[in-house]
Structure formats: C-alpha cells, structure tokens
Design a protein that fits this description.
Two copies of one chain form a homodimer. The first copy, chain A, has about 375 residues and is of the alpha+beta class. Helices cover about 20% and strands about 40% of the residues of chain A. A nine-stranded antiparallel beta sheet of chain A has the order 14-11-12-13-26-25-24-18-22. An eight-stranded antiparallel beta sheet of chain A has the order 6-2-3-4-17-16-15-10. In chain A, helix 1 (about 10-20) runs antiparallel to helix 2 (about 80-90) and helix 5 runs antiparallel to helix 6. The longest helix of chain A is centred in the C-terminal third of the chain and has 15 residues, at about 270-280. Chain A is elongated. Chain A starts with a strand and ends in a 6-residue tail after the last strand. At the A-B interface, helix 2, strand 9, helix 5 and strand 21 of A face helix 2, strand 9, helix 5 and strand 21 of B. Chains A, B: Keywords: Cytoplasm, DNA replication, DNA-binding, DNA-directed DNA polymerase, Nucleotidyltransferase, Transferase. Chains A, B: One of its GO terms (molecular function) is 3'-5' exonuclease activity. Chains A, B: Forms a ring-shaped head-to-tail homodimer around DNA. Chains A, B: One of its GO terms (cellular component) is cytoplasm.
C-alpha cells in the first residue's frame, strides 16, 4: 500500500496531462479511471481511452514536484473526480496514503479526504512499443506539421483511412505528411535534420491533435518509435502512445497538378475575409458554394441565395496571369486552407473549372494544398 | 425606402445590444428579426422576445457613429444573420440602402451585399410605458442589487412568482430587494439618494440579468418607470422594457430571524473552499448535504458518501459563541451565498438544526441571506 507526498500544483499538472487520454464516455468503464503506480524511483500516472494512452512519470530526482516516497504500490482512481478533489485541496503540500480496501487518504492542511479506489489489476495492459532505434524530432516542427495537415483529414468514419494523416519517411531524411478528406488535401514535405529508417504510417488525426495539446513548447524534442499497429512519442517524462490506422492510404501524389492555365496571387487576410462574407450567404444556398470569376484582369466573388440575398464583390489581387475562368467551390475549404498559411501572400493556381486548384504560400515550397471545385450549372 | 451611412463598429455595438433581447428559438418567428427605424433625427434599432424589449437610438448629433441620414423608412432583418454580415464587412464606412421588395443593400469597401428583409408592419407593437415621474437610480447601485439577490430566485416554473426578484420602495427612499427559491433567500435594503413614489413589483430575474449585460458601467444613471404589468429602464440612448410577474410575492419579512443561539465568524474565502471540497463528495450522496458540527469550540465539516468516500475537516474560525450544534445543508447554497459577500469575513447565525440560519458580511447590515437546513437522520 503506497504512500508519498508531493507538491499539489505539480501533481495536478501531471494529472491533467494524463487526463487528456481519458474519456468519461468510454464503453470500457475501467478506462474512466487513472492508474497511479508508485515505485522507489518515482510515480507514474497512466490514462488511456483504448486509442491513445499517456504515461507521465514523476521522478524523486526532479526538484519541483518535491516528491518523497515512503512505500510503493498502485491504485486506480476515478480520473475526473480525483482531479477535482486534488485541485480543491487547501495546501500545496499533499500527502497520499493507500489504506485497506483500495482506499486513498489525501491530507492537505486541515483537510482529510478519503476516496474509494479500485484494484490496479483491473486495469488493461497498455500498448507496448519497443524503444529501440528512435527517430528524433523537434517538437515544434512536428506540431507545425500537424497543424498544417491534420485539419484536412476527414471527420467521417465512412472511409476510416481518411480520418488519419499519412506520414512517410523516404531516403532517410525526407518526411512527407498528407491529409485529405477527398474534397481538399494538404501536404507538407520537409527534410529532417536527423536520419531515420523508412516508415509509412497513417496516424489518427484526433491522436495528433491530442499530441499537440500534451507536448508543450518546453519539451524541445521527442523520440518517435513505431511498432506494428501503434506508435509512441516519448519525451523525458511523457510517453504518448497511439494506435495507427490500418489499410492503404490512397496515392495522393498523382492528384497534385504541376501545370496550370491561370494563377492569382492574393493577400491572405483580405481573401480570407472575403470568403468569410461569401460563406455567410453560401451557407444559405443549396450547394453551399461561392463562384470565383476571373475576367478582364478582374477577380470577383459571387454568391446568390434565393432566400437571404447575395454578395458580389471585387477581390483585391496582387498578381494575376492566364486564362479567364469561372469556378465554384465551398468557401469553407478555402478559409481553412488560408488559416494555416503563414506567408502574407498566397498563390492560387487553376487548370480549369472542373479540376482541383492548388494553394501555396509565397516563398513556401514545403506546403501545398488542393481544393476540389463543385460543378454547378 | 431608407438610406443612411454609419461607422461599422459603432453600428455593431448597438446591434449587439439589441440582440440581447432577441432569441432565435422564439415561438413567434418575426421576433427573430430586428427592426431598423430611420427618421430625420436618427435611427432606432429594436429587438424583443416578448418578455424583454430593447430599443437603441443612434442620433445624428452623436459624434462617434458618424451617422448621415439620406432618407427615412423602416425594415425588418434576420437579427443574427444581419449582425454576422455587418461584422464581416471590410471597411469601417458602411452605406445601407433599402431597395424594392424590402431588400437592403450594404456597401462597404468593394463589397456589395444584398439582403432580403421584411415589411416592418409585420413587427408586433412593443410594450409602452408612460415616461412620467421617473425614479432615478445609479446603474452601479442597481447592478449591485441585482447581483446580490437575483441568483437566489427560483429557476423552476412550478411557482412562477419565485422566479422573480421582489422590489419594494417604502417611505419614498427605502428600497428593499428580495429573492428566494424557498430553500434560500437573499435580501438587500438600501436608502436611495433620490425620492420616489411607492412601488411593489416582481421583476423576472432573467430580465434583470439581461439588464446587467446591456447597461455597461459607462451609463451612470437610469430612469425607471412602471406601468401596470411592465416597466422600463431608460438611459440616454437605450430603453430596456420588461414584463413584470403577476401575483402576490410571499411575505418574506417574517422568515428572517432576529435572535440566535450560536454564531460563528469565518473567513469568506476559506469557508468557500471548504464547501467546494464538501460539495465534490456531497454531490455523490443521496441528499446532497454537508454536515457542519460545532462542538467544544471546534467547527468541523463532514460528508460521507458510501460510493466515493468521505471528507472530514476542521474549519478555521475567527470568532465563535453559543451552543453546540450539528446542522446539515446543501453546500451549494452556502457557496453561492458566499460569492456575493464582499467583506472578508462572514457571520453565520444559528437558532437550531431545524431552523434557517443567516449569513451577513461583517460590517454590512444591508445584505442578509438565509439558508434552510435539510433534516437528516
């Protein structure tokens, strides 16, 4: 039966990290608990929803937690309730002691709270990924890859593979990241600083979004490990496991056009605002599209809703070459695409009104995005 | 058919004020619109949900709106949609022009948006309250009265009169404000600076909360007018109408005890935190109560939940007199009561474990609160 004392604020921070893997709506009731494992060298907090598992280790050698261990052991506690109780305690000094029948006594200031826990043997075995031969990635770079691609993954389960982001490492250093929901696509290709072995995996976009929330910017690098159907992102104290999606990711390379008939350069912010206006009215139309018209060196956007009204405006352009064109598309895809472009200017490149068009931030050859038009009459 | 130009940001601010009265879920579809009335001297924006109506006048004499009127008229527009469209416009200069078939053209920068409106004759007649003989109140004082009492009103419609706050003006200057949901009560009595005629009304607490949101602190005073079943709060540019609740408010004066057997003074923050801890566990008990025990000059709080555990703690007290006592109550009522006490210390006064106890901030004789205990075995 374990016993330890710890700084409340540090403990809470670790609890909230692990909580990100825990869902109260899980079909497996035991997964609403978190596991505390107390050993001589430190404590490990564990949470899982079956898809993602997070382990946060706190060492007796760390200074801030002020962790002192009196006896080892392990216990399961209802995660949300336990975290609420810990955060309600009056003092930053916290003593935790397991007593008979898997109960836990928390002492802090003059408060004494006794909570009923569960036997840790009930907790399922967490994913295991062999930690050999890691790929070393900068957290900042990885989070940027995620924010630039994961939004384009599908949120619908009709084609499960499209709910993931495709990560491929070629030539030991070239990392390609692609997501598509079949209406739009976002692909980023970068050269890594460290070499790694070839891999080709599809990571659930939801897991990647949680990864972004868990690994804060203070964690400079993560080690990445792959196993058959799962992977592990590991920093000094945090291990983040996720299942991988099974199946073949579609060949997206062939979708990306190389030659175009018209190209327009816009200011990112002003195009985005114009599309937000268009979206207000396109939301009230049957096919939800905006019409963009390039004619006589002028670009206009146009939406007509029989119910609510119409918007008609000339779009400011910075540069413009090629053939006249009228193309319809969902303004929401363009808005979301523009959100991840860091440059001030964006180039839209068109082949025809029935072929996908591409977006690229000026002076950015790493990120390319694709939007499929909607055929209208 | 009206035509005017106005500063977008000022116009939006007025639109958002009026929007507070407008519900999209109203049973009367026309109440999801807002009315724009354009006259020679300015424009009036009007919104209503049948219970509350708000009119915001913008004058051509005000400097900030930059209002220029070219033609008068009036029109109804879908409130939420119209506000979203206005806020999406690119330039701060905004031209609005009514055209045929109740349509409105908005021009801003290079954008031109046409919206379908409705004939203003379809809009219901707004409440009318004669504006004679006003009671002049400081906005700050009125908002304080509301925040200290309205939370104690009932949120349940089983006794509609208890969903309101009872306002009574006696002796021309003594304003009494009371709310109770029959489990707890909050009463504030103040002396007004300006005299007024006697009134005795019950104002829906929901209306008062909206009043607080609409009248910001820049509005120093409001004039208050009463009619048969409605009232009006009026500042220079804003008129806020609300229906009154009909029926007799219970006689609450007789509920408030004057003599006590035990009195305990606590620090407000530390008592509140202790009750928040107790609530975590009392939420998991059958009757949802915490037990407070005064014995041998020590005060303890105690909750036992067979499912999740127990809390047992000694409460810090500042002063303590009277008989020993054990009393059970819903900690949520005490937490909400403590939230509105501005003093650092609070005095709880008890008669017995079956009689309501009172709360008073130290050196505050204006605000008194009452909490009814729960009988337990």
């Amino acid at each position: 039966m374990f016993q330890f004392s710890i700084n409340k604020n540090f403990f809470l921070q670790a609890l909230n990290t692990v909580k990100r893997a825990i869902s109260t709506k899980n079909a497996i009731p035991i997964l609403s608990t978190l596991k505390i494992e107390v050993a001589a060298e430190g404590i490990t907090l564990i949470g899982s929803n079956g898809q993602i598992s997070i382990e946060n280790f706190i060492s007796i050698d760390q200074e801030n937690p002020g962790l002192v261990i009196d006896a080892p052991g392990s216990l399961l506690l209802e995660a949300n309730f336990f975290i609420n109780v810990v955060s309600s305690l009056p003092s930053v000094e916290l003593d935790l002691k397991e007593i008979e029948n898997h109960q836990l006594i928390l002492k802090s200031g003059k408060s004494e709270i006794t909570l009923k826990g569960k036997d840790s043997y009930q907790y399922p075995r967490i994913q295991e990924v062999p930690t050999t031969n890691p790929l070393l990635l900068e957290t900042k770079v990885l989070k940027e890859l995620i924010s630039e691609t994961a939004f384009a993954a599908s949120s619908q389960e009709s084609r499960p593979i499209l709910t993931g982001v495709h990560f491929v490492l070629n030539d030991q250093k070239q990392l390609k990241t692609v997501a598509t929901d079949s209406h739009r696509l976002s692909q980023k290709v970068i050269q890594l600083e460290n070499v790694g072995d070839h891999f080709d995996v599809v990571i659930p976009s939801r897991s990647l979004k949680e990864f972004t929330a868990v690994f804060d910017d203070a964690i400079e690098t993560v080690k990445v490990y792959f196993a058959h159907n799962q992977m592990l992102f590991k920093s000094e104290y945090i291990s983040f496991y996720t299942r991988l999606l099974e199946g073949n990711y579609p060949d997206t390379d062939r979708l990306i056009p190389k030659e175009f008939n018209s190209q327009i350069t816009f200011n990112v912010a002003s195009l985005r605002q114009a599309m937000e206006r268009a979206r207000l009215l396109s939301n009230a139309t049957e096919n939800g599209t905006v019409k963009m018209e390039l004619k006589d060196q002028i670009v206009r956007s146009y939406v007509h809703s029989p119910e609510v009204g119409q918007v008609d405006e000339e779009l400011e352009t910075i540069h413009l070459v090629g053939e006249d064109l009228t193309i319809s598309f969902n303004p929401n895809y363009l808005i979301e695409a523009l959100k991840v472009i860091k440059a001030e200017e964006v180039e839209l490149s068109f082949i025809s009104h029935i072929r996908p068009f591409t977006l690229k931030g000026m002076e950015d050859d790493h990120l390319i995005q694709l939007i499929t038009p909607v055929r209208t009459n």
